[in-house]
Structures are given as structure tokens and as C-alpha cells.
Amino acid sequence: MMIIVSISGRNAGVVDMALEAKRIGMKVVALTSLQFSECVSSRHSSGKNLKDVADCVIDIKCVLGDACLSIEGMDANFCGTSTVPGMFVMESIVARTVELCSERGVVPPVYVSSSLDKGAAINDAYIKQYGKLTECL
After folding, report:
1. All residues at 6 or more sequence positions from 121 whose CB lies less than 8 Å from its CB, including other chains
2. pLDDT tens figures, 60-110
3. Cα(65)–Cα(67) distance, rounded to whole angstroms?
């Protein structure tokens, strides 16, 4: 499975990633804003946005333009609305995945803070054990 994050979902790169992931048999989860992506045209040659290609869409409901504040004398809004809800959703996915693994008696490999004394060694062992998995892509 591949999770692709793009609030507008319109750029060619994210659509290409989704199409390629699906071509090699992966499921694609899109973290996007439907309000935003439904109001903009695609920049991909297929005319599709990320939401049109994904198997599952998680709508984080950001406003068009992904900015929520305005001030007199400025035409453009500022302060993005996607960062905090986007990270909350991603961390929620991680938390639920670990929980489901645990319920099934599986201890998932979880990166730990490299600021811990043993953190770098733990993470390095995971990289050594699982790093070659990307070679098959």
C-alpha cells in the first residue's frame, strides 16, 4: 500500500506515483482535500486528479487554496490548514496499524527516537533487515 499526500491532488507527480503504484499491484490511499481538488483542474496528461486514481480517499477537508487567515490590505490568504490535520491523520493511521498488529500477536518494527541512547542502533537494525524490500519495486 502507498499513502500519497497532496492537498490539491492536481500535480502530475502525485498522479504518476499513484498510477505506477497501482500498475505494480499496490493499493493507493490518497490524503487530500476534496473541496480543494474538486475546484482545480488536473495538471496530469490523463486529466485525472489523485482522488480519481486512488483506491481510498481520506478527505482532510481543507479550504480551497489551503490558507485560512486574511488581513486587510492583502489579497492572498495565509496560514495553511493542511499541516496539522494531515499529520494527525497520518499518526492515527500509524497508531491503529500498531494496535491491529498487537491484537494479532505481531510486534511491528517501529522506528524510535534516535535521541534515545539505543535509538540509532534499533533503527539501523530495521534498515538492515528491511532495507532491501525496496529493491523489488
Report:
1. none
2. 999 999 999 999 999 999 999 999 999 999 999 999 999 999 999 999 999
3. 6
Q: How many CA atoms lie within 13 A of 63 on its CB side?
A: 9
Within 10 angstroms of residue 81's Cβ, the number of other Cβ atoms is: 20
C-alpha cell at 78: 495565509
C-alpha cell of 126?
530495521
pTM: 0.82
Place of cell 486574511: 70
**CA distance readout (Å), 99 to 96, 110, 134, 137:** 5, 12, 25, 27
Chain segment 10-36, per-residue pLDDT in tens: 999 999 999 999 999 999 999 999 999
